[in-house]
Specification:
This protein is elongated. It has helices at 10-14, 19-24, 78-88, 133-150, 172-186; strands at residues 41-45, 48-52, 61-64, 110-112, 126-128, 153-155, 164-165. It is of the alpha+beta class. Helices cover 29% and strands 13% of the residues. It has five helices and seven strands, in the order ααβββαββαββα.
Length: 192
């Protein structure tokens, strides 16, 4: 249904409108005035609440955690109260943060490192407070060693096929040693 503004000329005032025509040609009202900047806006960003106080404030954006602390480190920050009122009014709750475990190497606290998130495994990357990236890589290496020990197959067996284990595959060093031994026994020199 198309709607438009009714002209205000004299001929339009003289027209007789029936109920059906008048309902089709309603005057469009202006949208309500947007009061952004007049009151704080609350939105969800990750696991936190983002409070926007507007351009006139010295600190425009505040990030409030679920433990009622603000990113500005001000005790009794107004943003915490704004989030409380937002939630009491039925606002959407922020999701629970993912719990990052302690370091499996030393037991110290860890913090996320997005540069080391697993592209294929989808496991989160982290760094240890004491050991840093080294403890993350050591833990990852131990997990890979454990998985290799639990699954020794390079190609698993199938009906009519015995499969190939990882320890059955020769390395290039082993192949070179066998070839050298064969060359010495037969007197064959591949470089001649």
């Amino acid at each position: 249904m198309k709607t438009g503004l009714i002209s205000s000329d004299a001929k339009a005032g003289e027209r007789r409108w029936n109920h059906q025509t008048a309902s089709r040609n309603r005057v469009l009202e202006a949208p309500p005035v947007n009061l952004v900047g007049c009151y704080p806006q609350v939105s969800i960003q990750g696991f936190q609440y983002l409070v926007d106080f507007g351009a006139g404030e010295t600190i425009r954006y505040h990030r409030v955690n679920k433990d009622k602390t603000c990113s500005c480190d001000t005790p009794f920050c107004e943003a915490v109260e704004v989030v409380r009122q937002y939630l009491q009014a039925g606002g959407q709750r922020a999701p629970e943060p993912a719990i990052i475990p302690t370091c499996p190497i030393c037991g110290a606290k860890t913090y996320p490192d997005r540069n080391w998130d697993g592209k294929y495994t989808k496991s989160p990357g982290w760094r240890c407070e004491k050991g840093g990236l080294r403890h993350f890589l050591e833990a990852k290496c131990e997990r890979i060693k454990k998985q290799l020990a639990e699954n020794p197959w390079l190609i698993p067996p199938a009906p009519g096929y015995p499969g190939v284990k990882r320890d059955e595959v020769m390395t290039w060093e082993e192949c070179e040693a066998i070839n050298r031994k064969t060359f010495l026994e037969t007197g064959y020199d591949p470089t001649a």
